[in-house]
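Supplementary Methods S3. Input chains for the assembly prediction are listed below.
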Amino acid sequence: MAQLIIPTPLRKYTANNATFTTDSITIEQAIEELTNEYPEVKPHLLDASGRIRSFIKVFVGEDDIRSLNGEQTELKDSDVVSIVPAIAGGAL
Amino acid sequence: MSLPIQISPQAYDVMRQHAEEHFPDECCGFLYGHDNDVSRNIMQAVPVLNAKEGDKRRRFEISPQDYMKAERYALQQQTTLLGVYHSHPQHPAIASEHDLKQAMPYFSYVILSVMDGKTADIKSWQLNEANTAFAEETITANFKL
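Predicted structure tokens for the full assembly:
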């Protein structure tokens, strides 16, 4: 089963769980399974049209899914999927 | 209402030195420690590269690779990634609209104001429960600016 790493700021919406294991075969299905299990995390991951929000990146291992097959990227049992929030800001 | 935040002198020194060394650019880094019933305790500050391309005097950005390393570090060290610090060169330590746009819940956003190369102020901010605005966190610390 693939393993999703939940970023620390979103763990309050996943019962403080740092990881989520899934037998989904694509990123899209894995995210859907996660948000079905923990509905409160959904608005932080997906936009109104159900796509991954622009300021959230998803990596399979070290590879951004945008350089793979996007949300249709297939998962293998040994894959570790990181959900990565954009961290940015500035004075003005 | 967030917990009062305690910053260790060591963590403060790392942030202050980092912010002053990179003046007039913004610097950034991660904050680790733990929460208990009465306070949020920041024990360690770890500088990371400001990955913003171009002018870094008013902007910072942390790469996804550095973010993933930070989460792994926290899991390995059995500590908690509590937030992010960054500097505001020649500006007050007030969270900006730009800071708010990309802020995550739960994280403390510690901001150091650096005026003419010297740290002038430090404040910490966290999103409110509705995730619509920043609320200032109370810093209780045994260090002096």
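The two ends of chain B are 26 Å apart (CA to CA). Chain B has three helices and nine strands.
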